[in-house]
C-alpha cells in the first residue's frame, strides 16, 4: 500500500481531545511498561532557524516514526513521519500542528486526573494562546472545573481568552492580573508560557493543597515555577526523565544545588500504571513538568492514519 499525505484540516477532523486523552494516557503507561519507546528531542540549529526531531515507536500497533518541525522567522511547521514497524515502509506524512496542541494539553489533563485533590474545581492559568486553550480543555475534562482565573501579560488578551473559553467549556473564567489575590484560590495551576522567570511566588499558592501543570519550560532558559515550590512538592513528575534532564529549565537549578534528586522525581507513566501514587495528601503540593514526548505524537498520528485509511481520506503519495 502506498503512503498517504494527510493535511492539517483532515488530521484535525479525525482526532479530538477525548481521543488525545486516551492516547496520551496509553503512551505514558505503555512507555513505563516497556511496550513503547521514546527518544529525546534532537535539535539542529543554523543561522536563520532550527530543525527539531522527536522519535517514537509503538511496536504493538505496528508503527515507528518521528515528528519533525522547523522554527524560523516565518513560523513553525510540524510534520509526523510514520513507518511500518515490521517492514520499515513509509505509511504517512501527517501535518501535525493540531496533534501537538492536543497531545500537549492531554498530558496535563492526565496529570490532573492522577495528581489533583479530590475536590478540585478552581484553576488558575498563565497563558492565553492556542496551547492554553488545549491545556484548559483537557484539565476540565479530567477534573471538572467551576471557575478559572486567566492571566496573560495584557489584560485584554486574558479577557479575550476568557470570553472564548467560557463559551466553549460553559464555565466561569475571570481575566486577572492580580496574581497575589487570585492565585491562592486555585486548586490547580496551569502554566503554558515562554517565561524566563517564575510566574508567581511560592507564598502565593493555596495553603490547603494544589496541583501544578507546568507545560512551558521545555528549554533550559525557561522557567515558570519557583524553586521553593518544586522543592516543597510531595510528588514531582515529568513525562520522561531523559527528556527532562536535557530540557526542563524549571527543575535543573534545584538539581544542581542538590535540593532535588532524580531518584525522587517520577515519570507520569509510573503513576498511570499504578506503580507509584500521584498524590500523598489532600493538602500537599504536586507538580507535573511537561516537555513532551515524540511517542505521544506517534500514538496520535497512528490513530489518525488508521481512521484516514478506513474513511478513504488523504492523498496517495508516489512511494
From TrEMBL:
GO cellular component: cytoplasm
A GO molecular-function descriptor: alanine dehydrogenase activity
Keywords from the named record: Oxidoreductase
Domain of life: Bacteria
Database matches in SUPFAM superfamilies: NAD(P)-binding Rossmann-fold domains
Organism annotation: Mucispirillum schaedleri ASF457
Pfam families with a match to the protein in the record: OCD_Mu_crystall (PF02423)
Keyword Oxidoreductase found: yes
Identification of the protein by name: Alanine dehydrogenase
EC number, UniProt record: 1.4.1.1
Amino acid at each position: 500500500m502506498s503512503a498517504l499525505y494527510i493535511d492539517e484540516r483532515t488530521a484535525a477532523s479525525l482526532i479530538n481531545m477525548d481521543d488525545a486523552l486516551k492516547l496520551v494516557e496509553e503512551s505514558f503507561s505503555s512507555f513505563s511498561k516497556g511496550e513503547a519507546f521514546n527518544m529525546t528531542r534532537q535539535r539542529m540549529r543554523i543561522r536563520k532557524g532550527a530543525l527539531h526531531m522527536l522519535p517514537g515507536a509503538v511496536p504493538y500497533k505496528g508503527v515507528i516514526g518521528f515528528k519533525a518541525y522547523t522554527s524560523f522567522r516565518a513560523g513553525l511547521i510540524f510534520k509526523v513521519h510514520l513507518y511500518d514497524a515490521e517492514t520499515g515502509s513509509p505509511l504517512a506524512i501527517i501535518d501535525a500542528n493540531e496533534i501537538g496542541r492536543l497531545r500537549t494539553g492531554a498530558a496535563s489533563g492526565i496529570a490532573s486526573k492522577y495528581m489533583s485533590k479530590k475536590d478540585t474545581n478552581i484553576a488558575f492559568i498563565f497563558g492565553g494562546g492556542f496551547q492554553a486553550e488545549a491545556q484548559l480543555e483537557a484539565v476540565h475534562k479530567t477534573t471538572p472545573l467551576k471557575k478559572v482565573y486567566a492571566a496573560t501579560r495584557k489584560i485584554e488578551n486574558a479577557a479575550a481568552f476568557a470570553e472564548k473559553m467560557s463559551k466553549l467549556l460553559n464555565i466561569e473564567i475571570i481575566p486577572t492580573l492580580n496574581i497575589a489575590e487570585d492565585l491562592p484560590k486555585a486548586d490547580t495551576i496551569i502554566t503554558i508560557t515562554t517565561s524566563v522567570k517564575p510566574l508567581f511566588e511560592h507564598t502565593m499558592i493555596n495553603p490547603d493543597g494544589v496541583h501544578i501543570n507546568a507545560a512551558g519550560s521545555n528549554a533550559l532558559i525557561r522557567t515558570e515555577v519557583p524553586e521553593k515550590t518544586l522543592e516543597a512538592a510531595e510528588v514531582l513528575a515529568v513525562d520522561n526523565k531523559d527528556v527532562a534532564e536535557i530540557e526542563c529549565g524549571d527543575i535543573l537549578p534545584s538539581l544542581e544545588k542538590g535540593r532535588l534528586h532524580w531518584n525522587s522525581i517520577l515519570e507520569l507513566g509510573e503513576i498511570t500504571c499504578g506503580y507509584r501514587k500521584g498524590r500523598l495528601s489532600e493538602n500537599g503540593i504536586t507538580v507535573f513538568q511537561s516537555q513532551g514526548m515524540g511517542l505521544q505524537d506517534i500514538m496520535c498520528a497512528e490513530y489518525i492514519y488508521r481512521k484516514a485509511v478506513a474513511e478513504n481520506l488523504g492523498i496517495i503519495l508516489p512511494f
